[in-house]
Amino acid sequence: MKKYIAECFGTMTLVVLGCGTAMLVGCDAAAGGGYILTALAFGLAIVASAYCIGNISGCHVNPAVSLGVLIRGGITLKDFFCYLAAQCVGALAGSGLLALIFKLGGVTDMTGGFGSNGLGGVGDNVFAGLIVEIVLTFIFVLCILGVTSSKAGHGSFGGLIIGLTLTGVHILGIGLTGTSVNPARSFGPALVALFAGNTAPIASLWVFIVGPFAGAALAALLYNFLEGKKEK
């Protein structure tokens, strides 16, 4: 149970820091500073969580990562579904907390949707959005599987490497889809936005569920082939 609680709080932290920064600074391409700040916020949230709860739950804080680890043989099917539930609850709690803070403080949400994902950067093209999310999640999860492999030997630098990789995929993806690579991270803000009367994020939410799961599965299958032996 402790590892599920850790996943819940880790995912909440990711949403509060990442989506909260996006809400505050916006992600306007004309003012690229918002891109960098938001990308760094997501990456640093992962770094902090990795060194905080990594030894408890593995710090997946992402259903796509959990799927990749499942395919690698690192967790059981029961753990996968419990992780998924905990991560979604954490993302929803984080989004709700942001909604409360921004409402009470009278702060403007620069994203207009609680930091939710969208397809505006790809011309609302679903196929393009799926490709973006599959490719970016593939890169991110492949990095995680490599860094956490028993054969890697990265030691205490693993969390930093993973956080920097997440920062990198955000730098490219923010202008295209807002960068999900994490179904829970997309679920929380989209649901809170729906409660606030904004239906746009929930309409395209399936893209940010299917895309990351597909990318993670492909990454795990490739890593199984490359390393040749599943982790115990």
Strand percentage: under 5%
Stretches where pLDDT falls below 50 for ≥5 residues? none
Q: Average pLDDT across residues?
A: 93
Major sheet, described briefly? none
CA(first)-CA(last) distance? 21 Å
Helix content: over 70%
Shape: globular
Radius of gyration: 16 Å
String of helices and strands: HHHHHHHHH
Per DSSP, the total helix count is 9
**What's the multimeric state?**
single chain
How many extended strands?
A: 0
Question: Structural class from helices and strands?
Answer: mainly alpha
Could you explain how this protein is built, in words?
This protein is mainly α and 232 residues long. It is 71% helix and 0% strand. The chain is built from 9 helices and no strands. It has helices spanning 2-25, 33-57, 63-72, 77-105, 126-148, 158-173, 183-195, 200-203, 207-227. Helix 1 (2-25) crosses helix 7 (183-195), helix 4 packs across helix 7 and helix 7 (183-195) runs antiparallel to helix 9. The model has no long low-confidence stretch (mean pLDDT 93).
In short:
This protein is mainly α. The protein contains nine helices and no strands.
Which helices and strands, and how do they pair?
Blueprint: H1 2-25, H2 33-57, H3 63-72, H4 77-105, H5 126-148, H6 158-173, H7 183-195, H8 200-203, H9 207-227
Helix pairs in contact: 1-2, 1-4, 1-7, 2-6, 3-4, 3-5, 3-9, 4-7, 5-6, 5-9, 7-9
Describe this protein with a few key phrases:
single chain, 232 residues, mainly alpha, 0% strand
